[in-house]
Amino acid sequence: MLAAEILERKGSEVATIAPEDSVADALAMLKQHGVGALVVSPDGAQVAGILSERDIVRRLADAGAEALGHVVSQLMVAEVFTCESTAHVDQLMNLMTERRFRHVPVVENDALVGIISIGDVVKCRVDELETKTEQLVDYIRTGR
Prior knowledge:
This protein is an alpha+beta fold. It has one domain (3-142): Roll (CBS-domain). Helix content is 49%, strand content 16%. The chain is built from six helices and five strands; from the N terminus they run αβαββαααββα. It has a three-stranded mixed β-sheet with strand order 1-2-3. A two-stranded antiparallel ribbon has the order 4-5. α5 crosses α6 (118-142). The model has no long low-confidence stretch (mean pLDDT 94).
């Protein structure tokens, strides 16, 4: 399955936040959208970074409540691995596993068009395995 097909299923909405917004704003957006990461973007199309719950928790552990007043650009990961809509789910799974992150923004023509999470990848793989299992059971029952 391709990234484009995953986005067709789940939608292409991406929660973004501006680099100059506060960490407190980021926490509110994470809660509002029910997501684990925000794409940091000055305009909703460019990818400047990514900010995850994990990034915020680590800063809170270091700086305490003062971290809530920091700006997103101070915490975000600036080196973001992205993919195109033609990326295969196996490539994404390998990339996420090797690099130990959970979100890959999907970019086409230098513009953000979606995001794939590790949950999306797992769901895709489970669906594929269920389909194969059903086909095998059908083959065993019918002989074709």
